[in-house]
Amino acid sequence: MFVGRTEHVLDSKGRLTIPSRYRTALAPGGMVTRGMGDYLIVLPLSEWQGLAERLQDKPMLTDLAIGELRRWLYAEAADVELDTQGRFILPPDLRAFASITDSVTVAGVGTHLELWAPTLWQDRRAHLMQDNEMTSLFRALSI
Questions:
Q1: 115 has which bridge partners?
Q2: pLDDT tens-digit profile of 62-115?
Q3: What values do phi and psi take at 108, rounded to 5?
Q4: Which CATH class name applies to 5-117?
Q5: Alpha helices of the chain — where are they, by DSSP H?
Q6: What's the pTM value of the predicted model, to 2 decimals?
């Protein structure tokens, strides 16, 4: 399970070092793609394959939303192959999408990681910290 949050800096080649506590889950490989906002998601290969199987069973030709979701996730996806130092190249187009320049907030969110530009993470975190927002979310989920 991916939990916690850390700040990392991309190196001059656009490589991101994955925190050591997450490397075992990503050692067999993974995928990075656009999230549903101004961030990226990194999924272990097993999670990516599970998602792909669920989407494959949906009728893309008759359900336009499924077609759009497939395009959103697949067209910009890139392999995550960790080198011996636990790094992978974060493609420039994905960095641009998420407004990531040199620093990255790596947030564990259970089944996957989210990669955020630090300022966008702080904005989102401030929004979630508002009492009404979190209370509404917990209530909606019956937690």
A1: 40, 106
A2: 667 877 888 888 888 999 999 999 999 999 999 999 999 999 999 999 999 999
A3: -80, 130
A4: alpha beta
A5: 20-26, 45-56, 64-74, 92-97, 118-129, 131-140
A6: 0.84
